């Protein structure tokens, strides 16, 4: 007889336990699901944050004026006042021209006269016509040859800010918007012309304002007479100045006046 053994049977695995719902996890997920009211509150808070950032930036921008020196603030206010008065004068002039055109019997002649006056004004600003009027004459002596083109440019900008309407240098260079300054020791080139000490700046405008701009602490006179340059400066108010130097305008290569629509 032979013993017959039964083959090994696989051991049955225990049945998995049913998963019980995690109530804590469900509550946590439900808490992160925003309601309509919570969404509105979030949007409002975001808008408040944006407004706060903008306000901080504005406050930082204002800090520049808060930290400015008293002299700088006075100069800024003076400049704003001069610009306001100049604009008010232009408005009054335009209104006067409008009224004269409306009331004139010969409107064509009146318009022609106003156009010619405007041409003369633009010619003075462009440096193509001579000019006469009150102003200042500033004489800068630079015995050590330390003045640079930037010093001269700063002087011109200060006078422009103070209301200078026409400026010439050493009686030979008319200063206009396109005038360039280049260092050429000993001296400075202005529009290709060599200028040497003494530098004579003649500017037409309200003489007192121009003189104050030149003598302002930290301005032109202080810069020239300071230790960095070691020169001298003389500012004279003049009741009548003649600016005769003219600027030769560049000839346009491509632009041409457009034909009048009435022709």
Automatic annotation (TrEMBL):
**Classification via Pfam families:** DUF881
| KW Nucleotidyltransferase (keyword) present | no
Compositionally biased tracts (Pro residues):
9-19
Which InterPro entries does this one have?
DUF881
Annotated region described as Disordered, given as residue ranges: 1-22
Query: Which branch of life, at top level?
Result: Bacteria
- Which Gene3D superfamilies does UniProt cross-reference here? Protein of unknown function DUF881 (3.30.70.1880)
So which residues are the signal peptide here? none
Q: Which residues cross the membrane?
A: 39-58
- Coiled coil: which residue ranges? 77-118
Tell me if Transmembrane is a UniProt keyword of this record.
yes
Record key words, sorted: Coiled coil, Membrane, Transmembrane, Transmembrane helix
Family assignment?
Belongs to the UPF0749 family.
Protein name listed in UniProt: DUF881 domain-containing protein
| Organism of this sequence | Kribbella karoonensis
